[in-house]
Q: What sequence folds into this?
């Protein structure tokens, strides 16, 4: 647990978790990358569970926040400046890039990748292995790459299967 980390009450942090690490934040100057200082902090609110092997980076100039009651499975990466709402559930091998804001009660299944600087609404469900590259409206179920409303993605997949079947049968 690094400097500039604030941990609330009844927080469970499992083995191998790294909290308060520097942001992966570099600027290219004269053809080479130079590390920018992580001057922010990590705030973990009450009743949070952090699984083994998670990494939570400090903000560059602000805070990385894990909302009250949120649960992170093993091997979740929370980048610099991410704000995670209350009572979120995040499954293994999910990565959330810098400065993304996720609303309350989000459920994010395993191996989801979320790009930087996005707004994810309250009560969102993101299915496993989805790739989120744009803001997501709250109260909906998302799936796929790029992630879109699950119902629409399933229709697209059914249409593709139908086209493939027609082509295979010579129609």
A:
């Amino acid at each position: 647990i690094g400097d500039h980390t604030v941990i609330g009450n009844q927080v469970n942090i499992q083995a191998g978790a790294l909290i308060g690490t520097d942001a992966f934040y570099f600027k290219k100057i004269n053809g080479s990358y130079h590390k920018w200082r992580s001057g922010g902090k990590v705030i973990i609110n009450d009743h949070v569970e952090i699984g083994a092997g998670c990494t939570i980076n400090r903000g560059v100039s602000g805070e990385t926040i894990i909302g009250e009651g949120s649960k992170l499975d093993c091997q979740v990466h929370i980048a610099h400046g991410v704000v995670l709402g209350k009572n979120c559930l995040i499954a293994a091998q999910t990565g959330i890039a810098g400065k993304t804001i996720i609303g309350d009660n989000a459920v994010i299944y395993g191996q989801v990748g979320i790009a930087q600087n996005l707004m994810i609404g309250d009560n969102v469900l993101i299915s496993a292995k989805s790739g989120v590259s744009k803001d997501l409206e709250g109260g909906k179920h998302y799936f796929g790459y790029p992630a879109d409303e699950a119902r629409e993605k399933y229709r697209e997949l059914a249409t593709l299967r139908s086209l493939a079947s027609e082509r295979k049968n010579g129609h």
